[in-house]
Structures are given as structure tokens and as C-alpha cells.
Design goal:
The chain is an all-alpha fold. The protein has helices at about 5-10, 15-30, 30-50, 60-105, 105-140, 145-170.
Length: about 180
């Protein structure tokens, strides 16, 4: 006799009417399945009537403390992994770029190109500074003093908020709940 569907039905709630009727008829003739159902009901009874045992004194505090430590350790490990991954990616990119450049051109050409790029960048930065200086010299007569005071106050307020935020993070840390 196949007991499989009946054994599954014993552990299943929400049987259809036909399944419930077939299970009832099977339990009348099968001692094995009837014994299984009786043991299930006995176990459910024991679970319902069992006393709830309180944890040992200080368990909650120890568990919370160890949880916070585990969480902090896990976060540190994630940060380390991220930095290692980024460092590895940078090194691999640098190695591939260096290999490609060395194969495609001579060392002298690379040195010349590097010096040219650095000088070009410095000149561009100098031009940008000259532009800002010219802009600052031209703007004061065009913008009323009240607007300058508002603009300066806004920048100062943003700087203070930023510094207070940095101070709070550095002294209290970041807690994610």
C-alpha cells in the first residue's frame, strides 16, 4: 500500500474535502499512518503545553554586545575587501596601461608625452585661476553688497554645518539601525 500521499497529508493543513475524507478512510485501515498522526498530535500538544524557559541572567546584554561586535567586525572586513579590490583593480589597470604604452612607443616618447601633459595641465590650471581672478575683479561693482553678504553667509553656514557633521561623525560614529 502506498503511504506517501497520506503521510504528506498528515503534515498538511488546508486539505480539500476529498483529501480529508480519503485520509480519514486510510487512517481507519492503516496502523502505520494512524501511529504517525498520533505522534504528530502528541508532539504538537507537548509544544503547546511546554513551559517557556527564561534565558539565563544577562543573556540579552551579552548577545547584544556580541552582535554589535560581530556587526562592526563584518563592516571592517567589508571595507578591507573593498579597498583591496580597488587597489587590485588600480594595479591591474596601471599594469595593462604601462604594458600597452611600452609596447606601442619608446620610453623617450612616453617621458616627453608625460612632461607635456603635466605642463599642459599646469597651464590650464593657471588660465582657470586667471579667469576666476578676472571674474572676481569684474563682479563687485555689478552685484549689490547685500547679495554678497547673503552669498557669504550662506557659504559660511554650509561650512559650519559641514564641520559640525564631521565632528559628530568622528566623535559619535555612524550607527545604522
Amino acid at each position: 500500500m502506498s503511504h506517501q500521499p497520506f503521510e504528506n497529508w498528515i503534515f498538511t493543513n488546508g486539505l480539500t474535502l476529498e483529501q480529508h475524507k480519503a485520509l480519514y478512510e486510510h487512517l481507519q485501515s492503516c496502523e502505520r499512518c494512524k501511529n504517525l498522526q498520533n505522534r504528530l498530535h502528541s508532539m504538537e500538544n507537548q509544544m503547546r503545553t511546554a513551559a517557556i524557559i527564561a534565558p539565563p541572567a544577562g543573556f540579552n546584554q551579552r548577545w547584544r554586545a556580541s552582535f554589535a561586535e560581530r556587526l562592526e567586525r563584518q563592516q571592517r572586513q567589508q571595507v578591507r575587501r573593498l579597498f583591496l579590490l580597488l587597489a587590485a583593480a588600480i594595479l591591474i589597470s596601471f599594469a595593462i596601461t604601462a604594458a600597452t604604452l611600452l609596447v606601442s612607443s619608446s620610453v623617450e616618447a612616453l617621458l616627453f608625452s608625460s612632461v607635456k601633459t603635466v605642463l599642459s595641465t599646469l597651464m590650464s590650471f593657471n588660465q582657470f585661476l586667471l579667469f576666476l581672478l578676472t571674474l572676481v575683479r569684474m563682479l563687485p561693482p555689478a552685484i549689490p553688497i547685500a547679495l554678497w553678504i547673503l552669498l557669504t553667509s550662506g557659504v559660511a553656514l554650509a561650512a559650519v554645518v559641514w564641520l559640525v557633521s564631521l565632528w559628530r561623525i568622528s566623535t559619535q560614529g555612524v550607527y545604522i539601525q
